[in-house]
Specification:
Elements: H1 2-41, H2 59-68, H3 79-103, H4 112-146, E1 149-153, E2 160-164, H5 167-213, E3 230-232, E4 235-237, H6 247-250, H7 252-262, H8 272-277
Antiparallel strand pairs: 1-2, 3-4
Length: 288
């Protein structure tokens, strides 16, 4: 019986010893997914190939950060979503900045085209600045992906080093730079060229409208004088049928013609010097 008891205990020992072994097996199994996940982030390569470079300075990780960034990720969007984002930026700045600023010069009711072109110009400048900012970020990462060696900093600017990419890393980075970054840069460049063209066309058209509608003194919009006009030593006349201010006191037809030419606005309101001399406050309600 004693022999049987010792044999039973000896058979039970392996069963009790399985605990540490199982724990080690579970720990190894849990460690494998972490390694495979790290390799997936590195494009399937062994992460130790780039162990010298801090993770946040590796080009492949910088590309992933671009794709996840709230602004830089616009470059990787589909064409439709990309255009919607830029249109949203234009609409916001036109409604709250460009349009109100243009309103100070142009009356939307009387000069809708001039007001729209002026506000559009300001909003397009903001859109161009946003696209330039996105382009610079993608261009920087693209250069690091396509380069055979990249600079990095171990702890700060004072201990910079140069990392020469192993062949596997260089091939992966150049594939990413060619097929992911270059199409984005091409799209951003097209946007910048298109924005520049629209800005130029808008500015030229607006300049032409202002030039055509300016008065004899080169003023346009609010405060511009009505033309044609005759500036005399003792006043201003707007009707070609009147040659002297004294006619208005004796000739009813001349007075009616002058009133029609003035459009119901006092004559001195159309000349900035006489308007200032008269105080000009009464003329404000006649301004466009």
């Amino acid at each position: 019986m004693q022999c049987l008891g010792r044999a039973t205990r000896s058979l039970a020992l392996p069963a009790r010893g399985r605990g540490p072994v199982l724990r080690r097996v579970v720990a190894v199994a849990r460690a494998k997914p972490e390694k495979s996940t790290d390799q997936a982030l590195q494009g399937g390569l062994d992460p130790y190939l780039e162990v010298a470079v801090p993770k946040d300075q590796r080009p492949v990780n910088q590309l992933a950060e671009l794709k996840a960034d709230p602004l830089y990720s616009w470059g990787a969007l589909e064409q439709g979503d990309y255009v919607k984002r830029l249109a949203g930026v234009w609409s916001f700045f036109f409604a709250f900045i460009g349009g109100p600023i243009a309103y100070q010069t142009f009356e939307p009711v009387d000069q809708p085209l001039e007001w729209f072109l002026s506000g559009t110009t300001g909003a397009l400048v903001v859109v161009a600045v946003v696209v330039i900012r996105i382009y610079l970020g993608w261009s920087y990462v693209g250069d690091r992906l396509l380069s055979a060696a990249v600079p990095y900093e171990e702890t700060g600017w004072y201990d910079g080093e140069m990392f020469v990419k192993p062949p596997e890393v260089l091939m992966r980075d150049r594939l990413l730079g060619t097929y992911e970054v270059k199409p984005v840069l091409s799209k951003l460049r097209s946007t910048l060229v298109g924005s520049a063209g629209v800005l130029l066309a808008t500015a030229v058209l607006l300049f032409g409208l202002i030039k055509a509608g300016s008065d004899a003194d080169g003023m346009y919009g609010r405060g511009a004088a009505r033309v044609p006009r005759q500036i005399l030593t003792d006043g201003v006349l707007y009707s070609s049928r009147v040659t002297d201010l004294s006619q208005l006191a004796t000739d009813d037809d001349a007075a009616a013609a002058e009133a029609e030419a003035q459009g119901g606005v006092p004559g001195y309101c159309g000349d900035r010097a006489l308007r200032a001399y008269a105080g000009g406050q009464y003329c404000q309600k006649f301004d466009r």
